[in-house]
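Hey, can you fold this?
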Amino acid sequence: MGAYHKSEQESLHDELTRLRAFHGDARWQRLCDELAACARGEGAEREAALEALCRANGLSAASSADVVHHFNNALMGILGAAQVAARTLDAADPSRAYIDQIASQARRGVDFSSKLLALTPKAAASARPAPCMCERDASSHAATAASAGAQRVLLVEDERLIRITLRHELQSLGYQVECACDGHEAAKHIETRREPLDVLLTDVVVPGPTGPEIAKLAHAKWPQAHVIFMSAFPRDVLLQQGRIQPDQATLEKPFTEEQLVGKLRELESHG
């Protein structure tokens, strides 16, 4: 793990202080205090203190990644819904200020969860900036919609809010979108579908057959179909766990529409 700059240490300490105040349980408050103290350390001394603290509380890179996975799934739904809502309102609408605040707080949550995971001993992920809820450039959006044409997408996502917002974004870009809420529904859709599938956009971890298992079914029927795996687990964690292969395309949740469009364009350019 790389060293943090002082500003990042202070930011993490502030977030842990806030978290401490939200729960009255003495063990939780003590853990927040101890994590904050460790975060202020330097070099090997800090690493050793963090490792000892994590062992004492039953924490590991795997357990931390699992917590961040669920947390970031929820945050992606919030960010996506806020982005969709913002686009339906005029810039002068007073509701925009509240929506922007919702998105801002969600981005803070993403930033904090990434830093906390990176602080866990031997964690595979490093801190990364939280995604920005940006306005779409009108000309870029029009060009993407034109290039999408009538491409057919199967979206597999068990989180309802993420599924709704992604479907909305893809349809606004000109894609034909059908959805499945789990692996069983996705497998049935692939089995009964007659028209070829252009893109499979699937979460890695869904109830029933997993994302990679769904991808195998799709490729057996349509070898030219593009596959993009989504996950709130960092890509490095997915690779270490053997869930994906190095040459497979991924999007780490929460991601922006701009990142989704970029990944789709990248795959389409490769034929």
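Oh, and this one too while you're at it.
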Amino acid sequence: MRNAMYLAPFGELSDPRALVDVAVAAEEAHWDGMFLWDHIWQPPSSVNGMGDAWITLAAIASATRTIRLGPMIVPLARRRPQKVARESVSLDLLSDGRLTVGVGLGVDANGELSRFGEVVDDRVRGDRLDEALVVLRALWSGDLVRHRGEHFTADDVDFIPVSMQRPHIPLWGAAWGGSGNRPIRRASALDGIFPWMTSPVQLRDMLEIVEQERGTLEGYDVAIVAQTPDEAQQMQDAGANWLIRSLGPDASARQAITVATAGTSSW
């Protein structure tokens, strides 16, 4: 079982230096991972400042040596896969192969998508996400890519260098408890699943689908948020092999440092 912190770069933690301090403390306390929310905007009434997840992760990668890190999750439907490919390979090299990338649809909470003219229809965004994953993994390969799809184009291009992790950077697919099978089946084709707002019973049901799709759960990451010792044990019994401690969007720098320093005993 591995344990990770899950933090929003909001408020006091919008300063990359604050999250670097948390990551260093977490590594010293033997946490296995630290993942950051990847958002663009929320109204000042709900979030007092917001930092960039990718820039912050680069700073964390430079200041740590062992802890796994990554954005959780990247709403690929609103991103250009070629830009994500460049960013992620650079971050994987900078971290000596410690990057995990979570992917999903994202949400239009408080207009985070619609205020920027992004697609908000879930089905269309699902189609864009699936196609973006095809392009992203093709670009990661280092081979010549010829892709002309409904949403994205990569016309006779190859991306060098490739990532340190081979055959590719691990991808975890986001899924919501009770959200239907499409996100679960998408995650089944990736390297792991990151269920959100999911009960132990729902997690078992999800993993039944994943196992049917893959044939086995061996080598597959199952990362689930748990906030109490009892919940952590229930999620582990249901099949989780990563327990994620989320501090929520209102966490202060002091709270984050306290949890990081306490290590996994904070459960």
